[in-house]
Structure formats: C-alpha cells, structure tokens
Amino acid sequence: MTPGNFLTPTKNLMNLMTMDPFRLLNRQSRLFDEPFAMLRPFLPAEETLPYTAWTPPVDIYETDKELVLKMELPEITKENVHVTVENNVLTIRGERKLEEKVDRENYHRMERTYGEFLRSFTLPPFVDGQKIMADFKDGILKVTLPKTEAARPKQIEVKIK
Fold first, then answer.
1. Distances in Å between the alpha carbon of 94 and those of 11, 74, 83, 158?
2. Which residues on neighbouring strands pair with residue 93, listed in sequence order?
3. If you compute the radius of gyration of the chain from its CA atoms, what whole number of angstroms results?
4. Ramachandran quadrant class, 35 (left: phi over 0; alpha: psi -120 to 50; beta: rest)
5. Predicted TM-score of the model (pTM)
6. Rounded CA gap, 66 and 152, in Å?
7. Which entry of 10, 63, 140, 158 is 20 to 30 Å from 31 by CA?
8. Any idea where the domains of the chain sit in the sequence?
9. pLDDT value, residue 104
10. Which top CATH class is 58-151?
11. Spatial distance between the Cα atoms of 119 and 41, rounded to a whole number of angstroms
C-alpha cells in the first residue's frame, strides 16, 4: 500500500454521502454510454483499456488555393496508414500496434491507446478530388486538398472614372 492511499475508500465514501444525488444518477447513466464501462469498477481508478478505438487529433485549415488536413500519427509506419477518396468522402484509416519487444504483463501502466482508427471527412464541392496529395513525415500525415479553379478567389481591378 502506498502512503496516502489507505484513506481513499473513506474519502470516496464521504464524497458519495455529501454529493448531489443527481450527479450520482448521471454517473450511473453514463455506465452504459461507453464500451467496457461495466469493467471500470475492476480497473484502478485512473486506468483505461489501451486496446480501444482511438481518434488521432486533426487540424484542418484553408488557404487561397487549398484545404490542408494535418493528422498526428505517432509511432505509426507509412504502411499502416491508408488514405482513400470515394463518393466525395476522404477516409483515413490505420493502426498503431503495441511493441512486440515487451510483454504486456511487464507494463506498469498503459495510457497510450493502441489499435485501429478510422476518420472520415465529407469533402466540400470546391475540392478537386483528382489532385489530392498525401505526405507522411515525422508522425504527421498531411493531406492537401486543392481547390478547383472556379473556387479560388480572384482579384478584380476596380477602375475609377
């Protein structure tokens, strides 16, 4: 037992006795909202299951000529990333695999998520689907979605009379 942990059950009981009853109902209803929620009471308080679906973070920004999507994919190889465009939907899927060098039983804590991911984005009508490019470097996937010529802003000269 680590120092300070022996009071944890008492502290949790005191919180339960003094907290708002609607908060408890909200916690109970959330048990069925997430996968593996029924296993939560058997896991240590701060632990989560590492083999669940995960969602890599994405930044999407726009320039005059293109939309750019940047996705963080740390420790994923280029071969484990697949980018497709079908019916005006950009789909990125892949998998982050657990290292085979260390036995899972030897881990003290696993906070990073492993397994497959899938992200889909509906493309706006002004994207030229034939010229989409993807670049993967240093764990960052960069997908460039060029705009059609008609969608690009045009500078119109105003004449003064």
1. 42, 12, 9, 50
2. 82, 118
3. 24
4. beta
5. 0.60
6. 9
7. 10
8. 5-42, 58-151
9. 65
10. mainly beta
11. 30
